[in-house]
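Team,

Forwarding the record for the chain on the shared tracking sheet. I've put the sequence and predicted structure together so nobody has to dig through attachments.
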Amino acid sequence: MIYNASDIILTALRIEKNGFNFYNHAQKKIEEVNIKNLLIELAKEEQRHADYFQTIEAELKKKQIISYEFDTEIIINYLADSHVFNKENMGEKLGNSINNAKEALDIALTFEKDTISFFTELGHNLEGEARNVINKIIDEERNHIKKIVLMKKELNL
């Protein structure tokens, strides 16, 4: 099946922007300084990822690359559609709904796991530098999970 490369990049961009918005809004509702600082750090990293996908989108348009052939269309569609942050403004909405630190960290873990699943499947269909960059982002998302889990353990959440 032929996929519109721009659609896939826009999905990745939306996920990362929603991640940024979630962390940014959630940190405003958290009083614990160490959790607030972690959420601020994660927001910055998600923004950096979003910036990367904006650059890719611009390059695709410049090179007029509009399609890729993916072998795992059903899986990619499912992972994108079921991702907690694939809907517009969902990051902000969830960030504003946070009632406590445990809730913020639990949503963050779900976001990071969904993101890793989506990017892992996407990476299987890419080659060269594109695959290397996606793998680097996956490693960073794994590191986010590690930080969140360690914070939960530290605070017995």
